[in-house]
Amino acid sequence: MKRVKTEARWKETFKVAWPLCLSYTPIGLACGILLHAAGFNTLLTGLVSLVIFSGGAQFLIAQMLTVNAPILTIVLMLFFLELRYALLGSSLSKYLQGESHTSIFTFALSLNDENYAVNYLKFATDKNWTPNDARQVEHWSLLFWSVSNIIGSLIGSVLSINLTVVDFALTALFIYMIVMQVKSRLSLLICIFSGVLAAVCLIVTKSTLGLVASTLIASFTGFLTEELLVKKRPASALLQDIGSRKGGPIIEEIDKKESNIL
Amino acid sequence: MEYSSLDHLMIIILGFFVAFAPRYLPLLFFSKRQIPDWFNDWMKYVPISLFTALVVKGIFISSKYTLVTNGNLALIIGGLVVILIAYWTRSMAMSVIVGLVTVMILTMII
């Protein structure tokens, strides 16, 4: 009885995780190929995918190795790049209240941008979504990520592919996430503001620190503007929703059914 | 500078610490305490801001941190295609695949 239930659960979490796993595969392959080109052997490529588990960080390592950066510089860059997880972790923490230390520890181990977005949406839209389910989604993505990295490393020397195109997979994934999360007119405005700000910050700081700075400024601006509008002008057009999109990848099926009826 | 496998291992080990600490500490801190409302309201805007910044970096910023104004037309059109596909289909797989195919074809033509 219990076994049937657990099996159903991992199938359930895989259903949620598979689009993510699918989009990880080409990026993971590309990352493995790039790391191979930067001199990483296959074993270390597998290890870095398991313990760092961040596309951005691993692309950064590959890139920094090809420009012969000192190890400490690479680690410092990684620190700034990974600092954004502090924000992601904090925003998920409300769903992990009351969890044990071990549970939080293992949850943090395999947290990253994309499974965060999936889990955040799931926590927000599905009352039955547990930290355990979320961790399973993390592990699915970790599995696909590591395996595709290793395969990428193995085929690295054999196959040559257009890296501009492969790089775009990551960008496309982020664009999708943005479209799913822009709900009010204000969030669209913040999105545009954040884009311009990011360009300015990146050019000024000449480092990925610009990403941290622009994320902090843009998100805080969004928060302050909303607070102000809710207090002073609750009828403001900026607070209205755009269209009728209510969710993300998770409630996709329900949305489709709705649109069929309409 | 030539790196040995030991150097690579060093990067991985140190990288693990700087990658893990920001994921773990805030999660630990806030899961035992009541998170203030304003903090949640603020965090709501973090994903949009971060992802937009990463997209802009991917399309408009070069590896030397200068503005790219030339040669990124395929990426810009690809990005617009992804927005449309994501908006209409709400499917992650469709958005990424159609976007990739668009960019692949465009880089061959342009």
Automatic annotation (TrEMBL), chain B:
InterPro entries in alphabetical order: Brnchd-chn_aa_trnsp_AzlD (IPR008407)
Transmembrane ranges, per UniProt, are 9-30, 42-60, 67-86, 92-109
Query: Keyword set for this entry?
Result: Membrane, Transmembrane, Transmembrane helix
Identification of the protein by name:
AzlD domain-containing protein
